[in-house]
Every structure is written in structure tokens, then in C-alpha cells.
Amino acid sequence: MATIKLEIVSPDRVVYEADIGMLIVRSTGGELGILPHHAPLVTGLLPHALRVRFGADRDEQLIAVAGGFMEVTPEKISVLATAAEQPIDIDINRAKEAYARAKKRIAQFHQSTEAAKDIDVERAELALRRAIARLNATHTAYDE
Ligand code: ATP
């Protein structure tokens, strides 16, 4: 079966490297499935759990990506992430706390109080998406 190289780098390390069968990502333009020999492409990535497949079976390896860019050539996929973690490296409690903090800020923003004016809701929404990406990568349930 044809494979394509995948390299995921964060600012401080190589997070993941493998020859894979398919990568499924959430790009700024929507969900994309990248197979070997894909046409060259550069796109932004949203915070999400990207999905790596190796063969025809549906087994997937999940990797949390906080955001960044992806460059595809026919032979290689390079993900340059602002932060990325394999499930084993994810601190679930930290992600749950980040999730709760972001949810609280977003709820406060929607109450028309004095304190709401100081809340950067876009920042909170992104923090929430990063926390959800980490929880999804570890198959941890959360209340939407
Ligand atoms: P927090 O509010 O918990 O810091 P965050 O979403 O703001 O979360 P990031 O800015 O995306 O964190 O990442 C900062 C660094 O911390 C990165 O190196 C990232 O890999 C790491 N990191 C963040 N959350 C977790 C987690 N739950 N488990 C493991 N590493 C994490």
C-alpha cells in the first residue's frame, strides 16, 4: 500500500513522525483527507484532534493540534503546530481545567455585567477549542 511521510513539529520538538496511509485534518477551509501523492497544498489548521490512518482498516491514531499550518507535497505532509501532543503526553486534568475556565469566561461574556467587558471572548473560544482537541484526542467525555 502506498504511504506518505507525516511530520508534526511544535516550536520545541518533533511531536510525531511516521509513514502513514491517510491523514484527516480540520483546516481553515474545512475537513481534508490527505492520501499519498496528494497535490501540493498549504493551509491553516484549526485546533482539533487530527486523525492518522495506516491501512485500509479504520484504526486511527489521534494527535491534538492547537493550530498552525500544514504543507503537503506528493511525498510528505509537514504540520507546523503552535502546540501538538500525542494522547500519552496529554495531561487530562489540565485540559479539563482549561475547558472549565474557557466555558466560564464565555458564559460571563454573555452576561451583560461590568466584568463581561474585560473578557476577550475570541481568546476564550480558542482556548476552549484547544481543550476540546486534547480531550477528544484522549477520548475524554465533556459537556458541550
Ligand atoms: P493551558 O491553559 O492549560 O496552558 P493552553 O491551551 O493555553 O492550555 P497552549 O498554549 O496550547 O496551552 O500550549 C502551551 C504548552 O503547554 C504547549 O507546549 C502544549 O503542548 C502544552 N500543553 C497545554 N495543555 C496541555 C495538556 N493538557 N497536556 C499536555 N501538554 C499541554
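^ adenosine-5'-triphosphate complex. The chain has two domains: 4-85, 90-137. Strands lie at 4-10, 13-20, 22-27, 30-34, 41-45, 48-53, 60-65, 68-72, 76-81, 84-85.
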